[in-house]
Every structure is written in structure tokens, then in C-alpha cells.
Write a structure and sequence with these properties.
Blueprint (H helix, E strand, L loop, with lengths): L1 H17 L4 E4 L1 H6 L2 H38 L5 H26 L4 H28 L3 E4 L16 H8 L4
Parallel strand pairs: 1-2
Helix pairs in contact: 3-4, 3-5, 5-6
């Protein structure tokens, strides 16, 4: 009876380990820092962002100038002229707000530009990770950089360098 029970336990343990899933980790921050195309894309985004911020700031400066002019001349203006000046100030503020939304809104130009520049890089990394997983039999890959709940992971299961090699950036 003991032998039968022991045999069943050994068979069950063998079955459980045969179905064990293989895991791997990647560090996306590390990978992206070592991909020159990502750095170039970030630089392009920063330049475009600064340019657009400059345009918006120029409009806000115009608003401030109009407001100061209005304050200094309001004593001499008729009600109709005051209303016209106030409407001009509000229109400039609205124009600046709309431009900010156009460039930096949730579906704005910066978002679209980021998507167009980053998607090919992300797709390339994803395909490299997928190829490595297919070859090594990994069922799950976690991102160490965004996985705040990973307390400890063995460096042996980190495939970040393999991903970089697959992309052609040996480290």
C-alpha cells in the first residue's frame, strides 16, 4: 500500500513539473536605453514639443500684452470699445487653449507623433521577445521596469540582453 501511494505521489509530482510554465523577464527601460532609434525618436519628440510650447507661449504673451493695454486704456474707452477689447482678449485665450489641446490633448498631434515614431520600435522589440519565447518555450514574459509587484527575480531569467542581440544591438 505504501509503495502504491508513493508511486502515485511521484507520478503526480512528475505530471505537475511536466506542465510547469516557463517565465522570463525583460527590462524595457534598459532595452530602450540601448536602442539608438528610441533615443532619436525621443529627441525628435522633445524638439517638436518645445516648438509647439513656444507657439502657445507666444499666444499667451499676446494675451498678456492685450490685457495690459486694456487695463491702461480702459479709463479712456467707451463701453463698446471695452467690450470689443475684452472679446479680443478672450478670443486670443481661446485660440491658445485650442492650440494647446490640438498639440498636447489626449488625441493631439504629440500623441500621434509619438505613436508614429514609437510603434515601429515597440513592434520590433515585441517581435524579438516573441521569437525568443517561441524558441525557448516561455509562456509568460514580465517587464521588470513596470512590474512594481516583482520583489525578487533571478537574473538567470532576464532575457533583456538576448532581446538586444536579436535587435542587432549587442551589449
Amino acid at each position: 500500500m505504501k509503495k502504491l501511494l508513493l508511486t502515485i505521489m511521484v507520478v503526480l509530482a512528475g505530471a505537475l513539473t511536466a506542465n510547469a510554465q516557463k517565465f522570463a523577464l525583460v527590462d524595457m527601460e534598459y532595452i530602450l536605453k540601448n536602442v539608438p532609434a528610441y533615443e532619436r525618436a525621443n529627441e525628435q519628440l522633445n524638439q517638436v514639443s518645445k516648438k509647439w510650447e513656444g507657439e502657445i507661449q507666444a499666444l499667451l504673451n499676446e494675451v498678456e500684452t492685450l490685457y495690459k493695454k486694456y487695463q491702461s486704456e480702459s479709463v479712456f474707452l467707451s463701453d463698446a470699445q471695452k467690450t470689443k477689447a475684452e472679446e479680443a482678449i478672450v478670443a486670443k485665450e481661446k485660440e491658445a487653449s485650442e492650440l494647446k489641446k490640438k498639440y498636447f490633448g489626449a488625441e493631439g498631434e504629440l500623441f500621434k507623433k509619438r505613436q508614429s515614431l514609437m510603434s515601429p520600435i515597440q513592434d520590433e522589440i515585441y517581435n524579438a521577445v516573441k521569437d525568443i519565447c517561441d524558441k525557448k518555450g516561455f509562456q509568460l514574459v514580465l517587464d521588470r521596469a513596470s512590474g512594481g509587484s516583482i520583489i525578487f527575480a533571478s537574473p538567470k531569467i532576464d532575457i533583456s540582453d538576448e532581446v538586444l542581440q536579436r535587435l542587432g544591438y549587442s551589449n
